[in-house]
Automatic annotation (TrEMBL):
Keywords for this protein: Repeat
Keyword Repeat part of the UniProt annotation: yes
Top-level taxon of origin: Eukaryota
Record protein name field: PROP1-like PPR domain-containing protein
InterPro entries recorded: PPR_rpt (IPR002885), PROP1-like_PPR_dom (IPR033443), TPR-like_helical_dom_sf (IPR011990)
Length: 518
């Protein structure tokens, strides 16, 4: 500022210049005290001082801005020094040097990483400041983009940066190591991004890379992509080993294609590669869940031929397969076989057999089975009681259903949601409005856990019990969950609305509860 004044007033002595500087300094301090340096600089041009000429005031602000910029640069420089010496940047540089980065390139990357870390820290500081302002009520409605924070580690980040440098001649192993790191944490998008970069630079996946990808797609249940990589392995002349087969079979299992998994198992056996017990059980479970009894029976049989003896779990899965298919005779036959080979049935397996009897309404056979098991010391648990409560509720055996429910409570177990759905349906159909509404309240509190079948059963029961407003309310909850009512239920809802309208009309009231004017 002294230099500027000397240029304008060359004939003034030092004392006069000092006096001018003192006046200018006092005015600047006065403005700073009013609103701070940032605010002062922002409004200066629109509010010139009355004590200084306009030209002089502009000169003051030009010099002040230059000084402020220099201060900011110096502050940023000191801040950068801290980040350059930070442990995280040092660790990244250490890793970079281990993979062959040296000299000027390493220095440039160190500066680049330090700058990125500093900018990241500044971003979070700004974010915290905005959050504080929101809490204090300064910012009422402001959308803040908090950005996306990388979830993977510093080493993966460094490695990817290095691969992007043209001066670093990356080979297939450099890419495959990074793909493997992402694959192990099931970061599919990141792994695929590295794969695209690799192919884009003319590097085709080799056997090791394809094996890594098969494992990754298997873990996330993407059978189509796993199949593509498995086919790539074969084209490269690779004979799948135990690990590759296991990964591909699990990919089929996780995507609900057990038959394709079974075909690969047969291929393994043809090549004298013995499938593990885990593979057999995974296939058996997948067939069982879908009620594919032929497949489940084949797996159980070949499992025995392979030397794996039936366990409680494998027997239960076979019983579940026949239960899913609605074959009560075969479900019971396999249940009896399980007991014959020395496995005591648990609550889950017993509940499965009772449920298949429920589908056929074979109450005598169900009670006979429970009587036999009781002689052997078996005590039904919550799963068996839940099936029985559901069954008795459908038969409108209210007292019996309540008695069974009491037993679960006495045993310290909370009645599951399925039992509450059954009770709601039962009480509604039996015209017990008070208990129906109590059960409905419990069910509505867990509406996010209800299946489409649960919703349909509740609504049908409420309509049957002439609780139409409640049925319509539950139907809205059903639609809010994204479920669509079946055609029979739609007909019932339309019919109930029409009936309600006619009843209200006879009473001189509209469907909305208002008196009609005639």
């Amino acid at each position: 500022m002294r230099g500027k004044l000397i240029e304008v007033y060359p004939k003034c002595d030092k004392e006069s210049i000092n006096g001018m500087l003192l006046i200018i300094a006092e005015k600047v301090v006065e403005e700073i005290e009013r609103g701070g340096i940032e605010e002062m600089l922002g409004v200066a041009e629109s509010t010139p001082s009355l004590d200084l000429s306009e030209d002089l005031w502009k000169t003051v602000w030009e010099v002040s801005n230059i000084v402020l910029e220099d201060m900011k640069k110096e502050e940023k420089k000191e801040k950068m020094k801290k980040f350059i010496q930070s442990e995280e940047v040092k660790e990244m540089c250490k890793f970079a040097s281990e993979v062959g980065v040296r000299g000027n390139m390493l220095r440039e990357m160190r500066f680049k990483w330090a700058k990125e870390k500093m900018e990241e820290a500044e971003f979070y500081e700004t974010l915290e400041l905005k959050r504080d302002e929101e809490r204090e009520g300064i910012v009422e409605e402001e959308e803040m983009n908090e950005g996306e924070v990388n979830e993977y580690g510093a080493e993966d980040e460094v490695a990817e940066m290095i691969l992007e440098e043209d001066s670093f001649e990356a080979n297939i192993r450099d890419y495959s190591k990074l793909i493997d790191a992402h694959a192990k944490d099931q970061r599919t998008d990141d792994a695929e991004r590295i794969l695209e970069k690799m192919i884009g630079k003319g590097v085709q996946p080799d056997i090791l890379t394809s094996t890594i990808l098969v494992d990754m797609y298997s873990a996330v249940g993407n059978a189509d992509r796993a199949k593509e990589e498995f086919a790539r392995l074969r084209r490269q002349g690779f004979q799948p080993d135990m690990k590759a087969y296991n990964s591909m079979i699990m990919a089929y299992v996780n995507s609900g294609q057990p038959k394709c998994g079974e075909s690969l198992k047969c291929e393994m056996e043809a090549r004298d590669i013995k499938p593990t017990k885990e593979i057999y059980m995974a296939l058996l479970r997948s067939f069982s869940e879908r009620g594919l009894v032929d497949g489940a029976q084949r797996i159980a049989t070949t499992m025995q031929f392979a030397g794996f003896q039936p366990t409680l779990e494998s027997c239960t899965l076979l019983v579940e397969a026949y239960a899913q298919a609605g074959n009560s005779d075969q479900a019971r036959a396999n249940f009896d076989y399980m007991r014959k080979v020395g496995h005591s049935p648990d609550d889950r397996c017993t509940a499965v057999v009772i449920s298949v009897y429920e589908k056929k309404n074979l109450l005598d056979q169900a009670l006979d089975l429970l009587l036999q098991l009781k002689k052997d010391g078996f005590e039904p648990g919550v799963e068996t009681y839940t099936v029985l409560v559901d069954w008795f509720a459908k038969l409108q055996l209210v007292d019996e259903a309540e008695e069974l429910l009491e037993k679960t409570i006495v045993n310290g177990q909370t009645p599951p949601l399925k039992a509450q759905v059954s009770l709601c349906d039962m009480y509604a159909r039996s015209r017990n409005e008070k208990k129906a509404l109590q059960a409905l309240g419990i069910v509505e509190g867990k509406k996010d856990l209800l299946s489409v079948d649960d919703f349909e059963r509740i609504i049908k029961g409420l309509i049957e019990g002439e609780l139409v407003p409640e049925a319509l309310r539950v139907h809205k909850l059903m639609e809010a969950r994204g479920f669509t009512a079946s055609e029979p239920l739609k007909v019932k809802l339309m019919s109930s609305r029409a009936t309600r309208y006619q009843q209200n009309s006879r009473l001189g009231t509209s469907a909305f509860g208002f008196k009609s004017h005639q």
